[in-house]
Amino acid sequence: SAVISQKPSRDICQRGTSLTIQCQVDSQVTMMFWYRQQPGQSLTLIATANQGSEATYESGFVIDKFPISRPNLTFSTLTVSNMSPEDSSIYLCSVEGREAYNEQFFGPGTRLTVL
Amino acid sequence: AQSVTQLGSHVSVSEGALVLLRCNYSSSVPPYLFWYVQYPNQGLQLLLKYTSAATLVKGINGFEAEFKKSETSFHLTKPSAHMSDAAEYFCAVMRGNTGKLIFGQGTTLQVKP
């Protein structure tokens, strides 16, 4: 399995500010994914981050609110912009497995609280 | 469109009892199905996956799941619950071959002494 780290692990932010979350993988992967888990809820895919191309966003998520960077095959960032309390969630990145593309592994998540 | 439904948002069992967490899927193509576990304040850990090989899939920590096409189900079981199994469990289906996962609403498993 891939080893995935995320920074920060948690943060408390003021409304109107932005936070950038980093995701680092210990091996090169083609696809990285960003998910949101709102309090007491399941996970929802925000976008797919591919190296060398624009991120692909799911319905209900837009680039202006959640800009994503993917500068290389082991790293990605997700920015939560102009935050409001409704953005309080756990944000998780995931990557495909090394041996099977139909397998995904998740980072530990970033717990964001917006006041 | 593919979807996943987990029946029962909360399941409570006694330690040593059978664990059964239910998952039904909807898919027009042969699905890739997964069970993940999330312990408090942690990320998701893959328990097991179905990828069209054996219909009975064995995973980590003594869990297994059986793919039943006729019932469109992928229920998760464990013969004997341990206190350490208390967590949130998510069933997920992969959207085609895209790598994108669609998650069920999750089931909280409580294990009583």
Describe the protein's architecture and organization.
The complex is a heterodimer of chains A (115) and B (113). Chain A is 0% helix and 51% strand. Chain A is mainly beta and 115 residues long. In chain A, strands 2, 4, 5, 6, 9, 10 and 11 form a seven-stranded mixed β-sheet that branches. In chain A, strands 1-3-8-7 form a four-stranded antiparallel β-sheet, with no helix packed on it. In chain A, a hairpin with a 5-residue loop joins β5 (43-50) and β6 (56-57). Chain A is globular and about 40 Å long. Chain B is mainly beta. Helix content of chain B is 0%, strand content 55%. Chain B has no helices and eleven strands. Chain B has strands at residues 3-7, 10-14, 19-26, 33-38, 44-50, 56-58, 64-68, 73-78, 87-94, 101-103, 107-112. In chain B, strands 2, 4, 5, 9, 10 and 11 form a six-stranded mixed β-sheet that branches. Chain B has a five-stranded antiparallel β-sheet with strand order 1-3-8-7-6, with no helix packed on it. The interface between A and B is medium-sized, with 26 and 23 residues.
Summarize the SSE layout with pairings.
The complex is a heterodimer of chains A (115) and B (113).
Chain A (H helix, E strand, L loop, with lengths): L3 E4 L2 E4 L5 E7 L5 E7 L5 E8 L5 E2 L10 E5 L2 E6 L8 E8 L7 E3 L3 E5 L1
Parallel strand pairs in A: 2-11
Antiparallel strand pairs in A: 1-3, 3-8, 4-5, 4-9, 5-6, 7-8, 9-10, 9-11
Chain B lengths: L2 E5 L2 E5 L4 E8 L6 E6 L5 E7 L5 E3 L5 E5 L4 E6 L8 E8 L6 E3 L3 E6 L1
Parallel strand pairs in B: 2-11
Antiparallel strand pairs in B: 1-3, 3-8, 4-5, 4-9, 6-7, 7-8, 9-10, 9-11
